[in-house]
Amino acid sequence: MMRHIFRAVKFAAKGAAALTLVCASVTAQAKEDGPIRIGWLSSLTGPLSSAAIAENMGVQFAVEQINAAGGIDGRKLELITRDTVGDPTKAVNFAKELAFSEKVAFVIGPVNSGESLATVPILTRAKVPNLIIGTVDELTDAKKYPYAFRVINTNEQWISNANRYAIDTLKHSKVAVIGDTTGYGASSAKRAAALLDEAGIKPVYSVLIDPNKTDVTDEIQKARDAGADVIMPWTASTGLLARILNARGNKQWDVPVVGHPALMGLPIRDLLNKPEYWDNTFAAGYLSTTYNEQGKLPEATVKLMDEIRPKLGGKIDFTFWWVALGYDTVKIIEHAVRKTNGSTDPEDIKKVLESTSDLPGVYANYTWSPTDHNGFPDSAMVLNLANTFNDGSFKLATP
Questions:
Q1: How many angstroms separate the CA atoms of 356 and 365, rounded?
Q2: Each residue of 139-177: b (16+ CB within 10 Å) or e?
Q3: Which of 203, 216, 155, 210 is nearest to 180 (CA)?
Q4: What's residue 25's pLDDT?
Q5: Which end of the chain is more exposed for a tag (fewer CB within 10 A), N or C?
Q6: How open is the CA angle 287-184-79, to the nearest 5 degrees?
Q7: Which residues contact 315 (CB under 8 A, 6 or more apart)?
Q8: What is the dihedral of CA 295, 62, 362, 350, to 10 degrees?
Q9: DSSP labels, 109-169
Q10: Residue 112: what pLDDT?
Q11: What local confidence, expressed as pLDDT, does residue 72 receive?
């Protein structure tokens, strides 16, 4: 009798286990049947909006393009955008909302590194794959932040690229390093000086300037008196950069200025005392938006420009690499989901991205590994002539 009871219990247990597996399978399948929800943390208004607006064009266009083609294995993309206004507190609140209330499968951004430093830990705890578009090096750590994958270059790549150009190409070694008093400006100037030191060069002059200071004549004179033969500014403030260029120009001191990509920012043009003050200025830039010696852009860039140009009224009057970056973030999501056969499970996505090598994009080709979540290659970086903006792109800097 007891044997029959044990058999009955064993059979019931097997049945219950099988039912549990079926229910779990149905639940998992239900999760994979709906739209793929993508959170987009972007500073569409506020002081950091110029880059974010351009990135948003690329993000929106990629989503529309993929959905028009039927989505990813029949699943449409649903973009949930939150405007952080460049405020880390707002970014944190929106990151929590996207992860825990909206239950997004991915988050792109935030745009600003300061915001990202606050949101990456939150998204890590929520196990939400996060495509990083901030440059501060601390944002990616494969062990600490296993679901964070960087699409843009690191800040150190900008600095190293500029240092090599100033030292190896222009053959200058008496460097004046200028940063601003923000966290980003101070840390970037410090790192720039450290990398120069590794190359055997000690800056002849270093200074941090309040980005709102209206006159930097004194600092530029001190750099000149110290014997500087190149100025290397590390600030994202186009206003401060314009004042540096004006002070140099007013003194008729034609030393090269080599540094941050913001040196190419179009707002500088309207802040200069004379147009020629922008001459002899070189900025860290990208192969994807650089005209070659024949005056041509890479094929992938031209293709995206031609496709998106009608939405822009036929004219590209802003830096196009931000559009390419935004576009690529969504295409990377498409790549990952297709490789998982439709799964958005964070562990599956992580595994795919960590095994992705030389994925073709517009902004760059990307490679990540289990130990390195920085996907942007050094080979995709160049130095540009800062005052050569044309249709969203720039000329290559040459000696």
A1: 10
A2: bbebeebbbbbbbbbbbbbbbbbbbbbbbeebebbbbbb
A3: 210
A4: 38
A5: N
A6: 65
A7: 309
A8: 170
A9: --SSHHHHHHHHHHHHHTT--EEE----GGG--TTTSTTEEE-SPPHHHHHHHHHHIIIII
A10: 86
A11: 97
Tell me, yes or no, if the pTM score tops 0.90: no
H or E element in which residue 17 lies: helix 2-31
Instruction: Tell me the sheet residues that pair with 263.
Output: none
For the purposes of burial, counting CB atoms within 10 Å of the CB of 88, is it exposed (0-12), middle (13-18) or buried (19 or more)? middle
CB 62 within 8 A of CB 40: no
Spatial distance between the Cα atoms of 349 and 344, rounded to a whole number of angstroms = 6
Q: What angle do CA 342, 348, 350 make, to 5 degrees?
A: 125
Whether 35 contacts 77, CB under 8 Å? yes
Two structure tokens written together for 360: 């073709």
How many Å apart are CA 82 and CA 110, to the nearest integer?
A: 10
- Side-chain half-sphere CA neighbours of 240 within 13 A: 21
Averaged pLDDT, 254-264: 96
Question: What domains can be seen in the chain, in order of their start residue?
Answer: 36-155+302-379 (3.40.50.2300), 156-292+383-395 (3.40.50.2300)
With beta carbons less than 8 A apart as the criterion, state whether 324 and 363 touch.
yes
Closest C-alpha among 107, 125, 115, 102 to residue 349:
107
Q: Reduced to 3 DSSP states, what percent helix, strand and coil does the chain have, rounded to the nearest 5?
A: 50, 15, 35
Q: How many Å from the N-terminal Cα to the C-terminal Cα in the chain? A: 95
Rounded Cα distance between 164 and 284, Å, is 11
Q: Give the residues across from 36 on adjacent strands.
A: 77
